[in-house]
Design brief:
Four Helix Bundle (Hemerythrin (Met), subunit A), mainly alpha, 140 residues, 83% helix
Protein backbone atom coordinates (compact mmCIF):
# COMPACT_ATOMS: atom_id res chain seq x y z
CA UNK A 1 0.00 0.00 0.00
CA UNK A 2 1.28 3.44 -0.91
CA UNK A 3 1.17 6.03 1.85
CA UNK A 4 0.30 9.68 1.31
CA UNK A 5 3.92 10.64 1.95
CA UNK A 6 5.00 8.43 -0.99
CA UNK A 7 2.72 10.17 -3.50
CA UNK A 8 4.97 13.15 -4.35
CA UNK A 9 7.80 10.80 -5.36
CA UNK A 10 5.34 8.67 -7.33
CA UNK A 11 4.05 11.81 -9.05
CA UNK A 12 7.58 12.85 -10.02
CA UNK A 13 8.25 9.35 -11.35
CA UNK A 14 5.07 9.45 -13.44
CA UNK A 15 6.04 12.89 -14.80
CA UNK A 16 9.52 11.60 -15.66
CA UNK A 17 7.97 8.57 -17.37
CA UNK A 18 5.73 10.87 -19.43
CA UNK A 19 8.76 12.95 -20.40
CA UNK A 20 10.70 9.93 -21.64
CA UNK A 21 7.71 8.52 -23.54
CA UNK A 22 6.94 11.89 -25.14
CA UNK A 23 10.54 12.28 -26.27
CA UNK A 24 10.60 8.74 -27.64
CA UNK A 25 7.26 9.32 -29.37
CA UNK A 26 8.69 12.39 -31.08
CA UNK A 27 11.79 10.43 -32.08
CA UNK A 28 9.69 7.65 -33.59
CA UNK A 29 7.34 9.92 -35.52
CA UNK A 30 10.34 11.73 -37.05
CA UNK A 31 11.63 8.33 -38.20
CA UNK A 32 8.15 7.45 -39.53
CA UNK A 33 7.90 4.53 -37.09
CA UNK A 34 4.22 5.21 -36.49
CA UNK A 35 3.34 2.09 -34.49
CA UNK A 36 6.13 2.85 -31.98
CA UNK A 37 5.06 6.51 -31.94
CA UNK A 38 1.49 5.51 -31.13
CA UNK A 39 2.58 3.17 -28.30
CA UNK A 40 4.78 5.84 -26.75
CA UNK A 41 2.13 8.54 -26.94
CA UNK A 42 -0.56 6.28 -25.48
CA UNK A 43 1.91 5.35 -22.74
CA UNK A 44 2.62 9.03 -22.04
CA UNK A 45 -1.10 9.70 -21.85
CA UNK A 46 -1.57 6.76 -19.47
CA UNK A 47 1.33 7.92 -17.25
CA UNK A 48 -0.10 11.45 -17.20
CA UNK A 49 -3.56 10.11 -16.33
CA UNK A 50 -2.08 8.09 -13.46
CA UNK A 51 -0.18 11.21 -12.38
CA UNK A 52 -3.35 13.31 -12.31
CA UNK A 53 -5.17 10.65 -10.29
CA UNK A 54 -2.30 10.39 -7.80
CA UNK A 55 -1.89 14.18 -7.62
CA UNK A 56 -5.58 14.68 -6.83
CA UNK A 57 -5.53 11.85 -4.26
CA UNK A 58 -2.56 13.50 -2.55
CA UNK A 59 -4.12 16.97 -2.47
CA UNK A 60 -7.44 15.68 -1.16
CA UNK A 61 -5.56 14.25 1.83
CA UNK A 62 -3.01 16.98 2.56
CA UNK A 63 -4.01 20.48 3.72
CA UNK A 64 -3.20 23.30 1.26
CA UNK A 65 0.13 24.93 1.99
CA UNK A 66 1.33 22.05 4.17
CA UNK A 67 4.57 21.77 2.19
CA UNK A 68 6.31 25.08 1.69
CA UNK A 69 9.35 25.84 -0.41
CA UNK A 70 12.29 26.29 1.95
CA UNK A 71 14.65 28.06 -0.44
CA UNK A 72 15.48 31.75 -0.23
CA UNK A 73 16.73 34.54 -2.46
CA UNK A 74 16.88 34.06 -6.21
CA UNK A 75 16.14 30.34 -5.84
CA UNK A 76 12.78 31.16 -4.25
CA UNK A 77 11.94 33.47 -7.14
CA UNK A 78 12.96 30.84 -9.67
CA UNK A 79 10.81 28.22 -7.90
CA UNK A 80 7.73 30.43 -8.08
CA UNK A 81 8.29 31.31 -11.75
CA UNK A 82 8.59 27.60 -12.59
CA UNK A 83 5.57 26.75 -10.41
CA UNK A 84 3.37 29.48 -11.94
CA UNK A 85 4.20 28.54 -15.53
CA UNK A 86 3.84 24.84 -14.70
CA UNK A 87 0.37 25.28 -13.17
CA UNK A 88 -0.84 27.55 -15.97
CA UNK A 89 0.30 25.22 -18.74
CA UNK A 90 -0.82 22.09 -16.86
CA UNK A 91 -4.37 23.42 -16.99
CA UNK A 92 -4.07 23.74 -20.78
CA UNK A 93 -2.49 20.33 -21.36
CA UNK A 94 -5.47 18.17 -20.49
CA UNK A 95 -7.77 19.53 -23.22
CA UNK A 96 -4.88 19.82 -25.70
CA UNK A 97 -3.80 16.22 -25.11
CA UNK A 98 -7.37 14.95 -25.38
CA UNK A 99 -7.93 16.79 -28.67
CA UNK A 100 -4.57 15.69 -30.06
CA UNK A 101 -5.15 12.07 -29.08
CA UNK A 102 -8.72 12.10 -30.38
CA UNK A 103 -7.65 13.41 -33.78
CA UNK A 104 -4.96 10.73 -34.07
CA UNK A 105 -7.32 7.92 -33.09
CA UNK A 106 -9.87 9.19 -35.63
CA UNK A 107 -7.05 9.18 -38.20
CA UNK A 108 -7.46 12.90 -38.86
CA UNK A 109 -3.70 13.22 -39.15
CA UNK A 110 -3.61 16.64 -40.82
CA UNK A 111 -5.48 18.16 -37.86
CA UNK A 112 -3.55 15.97 -35.42
CA UNK A 113 -0.20 17.31 -36.67
CA UNK A 114 -1.37 20.93 -36.47
CA UNK A 115 -2.29 20.72 -32.80
CA UNK A 116 0.48 18.25 -31.85
CA UNK A 117 3.04 20.92 -32.77
CA UNK A 118 1.71 22.90 -29.79
CA UNK A 119 0.76 20.05 -27.51
CA UNK A 120 4.09 18.23 -27.50
CA UNK A 121 6.38 21.06 -26.35
CA UNK A 122 3.87 22.28 -23.77
CA UNK A 123 3.30 18.75 -22.45
CA UNK A 124 7.06 18.18 -22.28
CA UNK A 125 7.49 21.44 -20.37
CA UNK A 126 4.78 20.50 -17.87
CA UNK A 127 6.24 17.02 -17.38
CA UNK A 128 9.83 18.24 -16.94
CA UNK A 129 8.89 21.11 -14.64
CA UNK A 130 6.78 18.72 -12.57
CA UNK A 131 9.96 16.78 -11.79
CA UNK A 132 11.93 20.01 -11.21
CA UNK A 133 9.28 21.25 -8.76
CA UNK A 134 9.39 17.96 -6.89
CA UNK A 135 13.19 18.18 -6.57
CA UNK A 136 13.08 21.81 -5.50
CA UNK A 137 10.31 21.22 -2.97
CA UNK A 138 11.32 17.87 -1.47
CA UNK A 139 15.02 17.34 -2.23
CA UNK A 140 16.75 20.74 -1.98
Amino acid sequence: MISVSDLPALNATLNATSTVLLALGFYFVRRRELAAHKRCMLGAFAASTLFLTSYLAYHFQVPPGSVRFAGTGWLRGLYYVILLTHITLAAAILPLALITLSRALKQRFDKHRRIARWTLPLWLYVSVTGVVIYWMLYRL
